[in-house]
Amino acid sequence: MPLVEIHDLSKVFPLGESIFGGGAKGEVRAVDGVSLTIESGETLGLVGESGSGKSTLGRLVLRLIEPTSGQILFDGKDLTSAGRRELRRLRRDMQIIFQDPFGSLDPRMRVADVIAEPLIIHERMSAKIRRERVGELLKAVGLDQSAAGRYPHEFSGGQRQRIGIARALALRPKFIVADEAVSALDVSVGAQIVNLLAELQREFGLTYLFISHSMPVVRYLATRIAVMYRGKLVEIGTTDQVVTRPAHAYTRSLLQATPELSVIT
Predict the structure, then answer these.
(1) Which positions ≥6 away from 218 have C-beta within 8 Å?
(2) Per-residue pLDDT of the chain (265 residues; tens, 9 = 90+)
């Protein structure tokens, strides 16, 4: 059984009222009838240009925003009908890594508190065990234990993203949405983060929805690739199928527009 199943999922945003008092201007179908599955242990790469709806889809899957219609199943459970208590329980197994590693970290909190926050909310454990868990997570993402007592602004962008990844791993989730997790970083640092994500997947048995506008990055990391264009899913297949035999003209344009990413090894 797939870990994540999405059936005919849509999200419509109203454009607001006309300045002439003529009612609503219209609507934007950010996600338009998308259906797909994500198997346990795989990385599904979701690729498309800015405005294609891919980040909205990622947030819908976690129910960080409410869908207009459709159904989302996580581990066989219907997220779209889950109440607050059930959703809170399920969210232990679903986490997100955001694009901006600085904006997603509270600048007033020390790194130890940033990483420990999910543990405080969801777990019952002593302060000693919590400190030990934070130390293990820092080590897992390649940061020194001394990072625990410092603040986010004291770190580089790549290091801050490692802190965000450690926080996402704190509850040992099954599924992580990585939303443009390397797009705010320079190429070499982004390559290091992509390699780290691959290592963590093997170590923790993670399943990823990896969202990116960069076909080369998605090609490197993903088991399968899904292509979004104007809110619709226009192509999905294995990485080899999509890269070597693209079926849609938009996919071919993405492949032609982006060079190989030679720095990832």
Answers:
(1) 45, 46, 47, 210, 212, 225, 239
(2) 799 999 999 999 988 655 555 555 688 899 999 999 999 999 999 999 988 999 999 999 999 999 999 999 999 999 999 988 888 888 889 999 988 777 778 889 999 999 999 988 888 888 899 999 999 999 999 999 999 999 999 999 899 999 999 999 999 999 999 999 888 788 888 899 999 999 999 999 999 999 998 888 899 899 999 999 999 999 999 999 999 999 999 999 988 876 554 444 4
C-alpha span between 20 and 244 (Å, rounded): 51
Which pTM was predicted?
0.90
H-type alpha helices, 37-140:
54-61, 84-90, 111-122, 127-140
Distances (CA, A) of 26 to 12, 14, 33, 116: 10, 6, 18, 43
Q: How far apart are the first and last CA of the chain?
A: 33
Contacts of 259 (CB under 8 A, 6+ apart): 216
Residue with tokens 């959703």: 87
Query: Residue 183: which of 217, 230, 220 has the closest Cα?
Result: 217
Strands of 3-143, DSSP E: 4-14, 27-38, 43-47, 69-74, 77-78, 94-97
Tokens of residue 197, six digits? 């994500």
Q: Are 175 and 210 in contact (CB under 8 A)?
A: no
